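[step 3/7] inverse_fold.run input=structure_tokens len=335
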């Protein structure tokens, strides 16, 4: 009879590596503010020496020398990676490019924030704390914002409308300032749609999402790169990407107009029968009706057109962005 030898297995050596958090930082013509931003971010993150922190700056085709400034930052800080896009692709694509690059480094979490100091670096530490307590996505929600009255009213009406229309619940007053855990990022990078509304996409992914309230500061330098035209485009991407309400509106309006024309027909019959002396006019009714219907039809064709346009762009399946330069940080993460 053989005795089973008592095998002592050595306790597994658990290597507790420091969690890696990568900041994804879109930059478009921020030459006057980006140094101050980086300094503030470095100062804030220094309060968490237990984390490994890296910074991915995405230069979104700046024309004011921001790229050179970023490369200088990289020379002075080995944790900085600079990604230069070949032209201005817009904030949402710049962030996407940064997320894709960050994803390659297999971080434990990424944090997206603006580089104009409107998103305070200290708040990103709060996002990290909530993430450490178990959340997968932690978004920073504006309690207050110091922007122009125009920006505040347009933004709040947009969020109101989006809340009413979107089929996914997209939290209000939340920009792209957020922390995303690795497993959510793994999924997010597989979304390759062109008309991107990232905050909607992330909300759409699910997982455990929590908010942190913060007060949005004023810009440190320069001007907003989101003029009305771009804001409207983003708003359209938000609504068309997450709601089919505009399409359903066509049939609703069609229904309402048919009901109205039925009433009008009834009116015509009543006049003809009861007040035949007044029955001749009608040109006004026809004229107004023609223009009214023509206008409605055109507006609604526009609605269809915007969906068709999206289908078209998606079917072209072009790459979302083209990278002209990758200057990685000298500190390559150990595999
Ligand atoms: N941004 C970008 N590409 C653009 C426009 C903006 O990368 O085409 C960056 C910009 O540098 C900033 C962030 O996106 O870090 C938010 O832009 P901005 O501050 O102009 O928007 P706002 O805060 O006014 O909504
Ligand atoms: Mg800003």
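[step 3/7] decode complete -> sequence:
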């Amino acid at each position: 009879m053989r005795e089973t030898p008592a095998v002592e297995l050595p306790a597994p050596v658990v290597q507790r590596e420091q969690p890696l958090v990568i900041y994804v930082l879109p930059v478009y013509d921020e030459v006057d503010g980006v140094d101050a931003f980086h300094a503030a971010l470095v100062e804030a993150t220094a309060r968490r020496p237990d984390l490994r922190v890296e910074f991915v700056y995405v230069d979104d085709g700046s024309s004011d020398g921001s790229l050179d400034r970023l490369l200088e930052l990289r020379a002075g800080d080995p944790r900085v990676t600079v990604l230069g896009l070949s032209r201005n692709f817009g904030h949402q694509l710049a962030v996407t490019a940064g997320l894709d690059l960050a994803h390659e480094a297999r971080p434990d979490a990424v944090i997206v924030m603006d580089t104009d100091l409107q998103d305070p670096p200290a708040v990103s530490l709060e996002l990290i704390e909530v993430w450490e307590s178990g959340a997968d996505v932690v978004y920073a929600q504006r309690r207050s914002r110091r922007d122009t009255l125009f920006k505040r009213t347009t933004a709040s009406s947009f969020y109101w409308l989006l809340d009413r229309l979107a089929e996914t619940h997209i939290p209000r007053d939340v920009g792209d300032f957020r922390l995303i855990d690795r497993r959510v990022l793994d999924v997010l990078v597989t979304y390759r749609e062109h008309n991107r509304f990232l905050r909607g996409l992330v909300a759409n992914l699910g997982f455990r999402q929590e908010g942190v309230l913060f007060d949005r500061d004023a810009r440190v330098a320069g001007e907003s790169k989101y003029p009305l035209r771009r804001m409207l485009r983003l708003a359209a991407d938000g609504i068309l990407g997450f709601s089919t309400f505009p399409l359903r509106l066509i049939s609703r309006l069609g229904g309402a107009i048919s009901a109205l024309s039925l009433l009008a027909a009834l009116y015509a019959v009543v006049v003809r029968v009861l007040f035949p002396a007044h029955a001749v006019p009608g040109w006004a009714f026809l004229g107004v009706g023609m223009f009214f219907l023509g206008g409605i039809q055109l507006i609604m064709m526009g609605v269809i057109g915007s969906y068709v346009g999206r289908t078209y762009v998606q079917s072209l399946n072009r790459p979302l962005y083209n990278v002209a330069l990758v200057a990685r940080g000298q500190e390559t993460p150990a595999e």
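[step 4/7] annotate
Strands lie at 20-27, 52-59, 80-85, 109-112, 137-145, 174-181, 209-216, 323-327.
The domain at 20-243+319-327 is CATH 3.90.550.10 (Spore Coat Polysaccharide Biosynthesis Protein SpsA; Chain A).
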